[in-house]
Design goal:
This is EVE domain protein. InterPro entries: 5hmC_binding, EVE_domain, PUA-like_sf, THYN1-like_EVE. The protein is an alpha+beta fold. The chain has five helices and six strands. A six-stranded mixed sheet has the order 2-5-4-3-1-6. A hairpin with a 5-residue loop joins strand 3 and strand 4. The longest helix is centred in the last third of the chain and has 10 residues. It binds a DNA duplex (12 and 12 nucleotides) through loops.
Length: 137
Amino acid sequence: MAYWLFKSEPHKWSWEMQKAKGAAGQEWDGVRNYQARNNMRTMKIGDQGFFYHSNEGLEIVGIVEVCALAHPDSTTDDPRWECVDIRAVKDVPKPVSLSTVKATPSLAKMSLVTSMRLSVQPVTEEEWAIVCRMGGL
DNA sequence: GCCAACGTTGGC
DNA sequence: GCCAACGTTGGC
């Protein structure tokens, strides 16, 4: 099982909207970056991910789960772009902010810090455990 | 809203 | 295949 982090601007697609989709989940469309796409291609059903609010909020607010393998992105005809589906699993009781992540030495190597602009990122098992603990899980 | 960082595009 | 121009992302 692998761990990931999905970024979304809340005014475009928020955690509340994701939760409203329930178990059916939502296509993670609109990604137009090769590295992010490649990350999605390697995802398996049941992989866990953090849901991060970028631009506003700047914090990890929820846990999601991959519920469909990479498939063509329905929002484009360009065959280069694929995406997975994810569904909300649970809230992070105490959202973990970017400033907290930056201030935590053991999280200094998180992609969130080192690859600021990558919208779909891998998270290591250690990082996952640390963030979950800080988030009250 | 600004702007730095960085990914992508396209001319040569 | 290089690199300048351009567009986008995302923190502040």
